[in-house]
Amino acid sequence: MRVKVRHSTEYHYGQAVSRGLQKIRLTPKHSGGQEVLSWRTEIEGGRKEVAYTDQHNNLVELLSIEPGSRTVTILCEGEVDTSDTAGVIGQHGGFAPLWYFQRATPQTRPGPRVRQLVRDLGKDFDDDPSRLHALSALILKTVGYETGTTDFSTTAEQAIETGRGVCQDHAHIMIAAARLMGYPARYVSGYLVMDDRVDQDAGHAWAEVHVEGLGWVGFDVSNGVSPDPRYVRVATGLDYGEAAPISGIVYGGRNESMVVQLQVQQ
């Protein structure tokens, strides 16, 4: 499938920015059954200082905000060819060793609720993929999809306690539980072609778990599937913080507001 993406994030500030830096992880990966045919990022109100590949093979662009700016716009667009790999990304690569993906982070640290989830899952499975698909289904049954109930700082434990969450929360719970069961696991940010719309409110997120003999395998808990050609992988990390599309710090620029425009289509 050829997927076309146009993604604009516009920041407005009630007071002029004195200085600021942003990390941009918005360029899709050349791997895992996808080929980037064309891609560009443009900045208004700032400039690109440097680009580098991080420990997860994410292309990171460092942006400085021009002093005095009240509006900063980050635009990315391009086309990606995707193929069906049944969610299997393949063997591990990148600078971070495989054991690194068994580390807990504040958002994925297992507590009593994650531990209970793993106990409820049981052990009667023929193989690892069956076990992990069952875990994904149990997470969705335990934490229903509902917007507006959590935010970017919500932990896996808090989302289970709330009983509601979004794709970010489902991914964090899947990662926390998989690591507790001994699997390396990571967070994925990206895009998803939806059947009923082109315009979307935000990008998508899911989890990948490393299975011996298969390598990395994707699990989209929110939709109950492994990623197929509708999915575009952009950035990976231990959790949302390491794979966030945009992150950084701004001095001055009070009363920040943000407008996102996203189109994803075949």
From TrEMBL:
Residues covered by the Transglutaminase-like domain: 159-223
InterPro entries linked: Bac_transglu_N (IPR013589), Papain-like_cys_pep_sf (IPR038765), Transglutaminase-like (IPR002931)
UniProt GO molecular function: peptidase activity
Keywords, comma-separated and alphabetical: Hydrolase, Protease
GO-annotated biological processes: proteolysis
Superkingdom of the source species: Bacteria
Name of protein: Transglutaminase-like putative cysteine protease
